[in-house]
Write the structure tokens for this entry.
Amino acid sequence: MLGIGDAPYDSLEESVKASLTEYYYVRNMENYDDMYRAVAFFASKYGRIDWIESNNEYWLEQDARLRTDFNVNTGIKSDNILFFKSKAAMKTKYEQGGIPTARGHKITGYADTAEFISKVGYPVIAKPENGVGAADTYTIKNADDLKHFFETKPEEAYVCEEFITGDICSYDAIADAAGEPLFESMTVWPPSIADIVNQDLDLAYYTHREVPESLRTLGRKTIKAFGAFNRFVHLEFFRLTKPRKELGEVGDFVALEVNMRPAGGYTPDMMNYAHSVDVYQIWADMVTTGKRIVPEPAKEYFCAYASRKDGKNKPGCRKDIFRTGILTAESE
């Protein structure tokens, strides 16, 4: 197990040091030449590298480039990374896999966007084509909003999607070399991440102890459609609370976007609580043995997370209140 990072070796926790055969420090991980030299050094010392992974959205393209340059075949390479990162390209894979998804459009100008909206109707969502989370996302409800969007949007590429009314749910899994899930979980956000970011809401969500069969089926189809093998995936879906023509009825799942890495924040730990497992160990065993060794749990739970954003001291609340909590329960 070889590590590359921009943290000095002496700053690493002892558990990390004990897990690594060797560590290579680089001043700036965004400098590809430095990263290339680090992998080349390890290859010259230990032989052919057979796995490169960061488990981090930000480094997906660099991971793919390193795999390509060093012919590492256990993960996605540069020729397919576009489908993992581009929200417009994702639509192609969803269609090929027969997975229902909101109609989308890659924005090139005002006229083409207005034409797309004339087909799907207001409101629509506009978001960065290659973005993480819900930052710089716009809800366009009318012609005035559309004009405001083009007057204020950042210079980066944007996509526009029809508005879907539903809860945000994720299908989280660890897939083996054949794309078969070794672990599956479901997480639900009653207020969506977009609303939390754009309306400055407090955060609350929960990990479900069961994965509905319809979500399980779509999640597995998505893994196969995208070729997301040998990795942790975080796939986002709408669970419709209002019927949508050509997409589904209330309760049906509709694909939103893929994230080819573990869920963020405390969610992996919440999965551990809810499913009485160690997802980190399941992933590590997949890497080293290609299979799951951690046994199936005897009992599973719901695990909820709730927090209040810093600076939101509501009237009547103690300022020193413990602001973040995780709760496990057998039922809703």
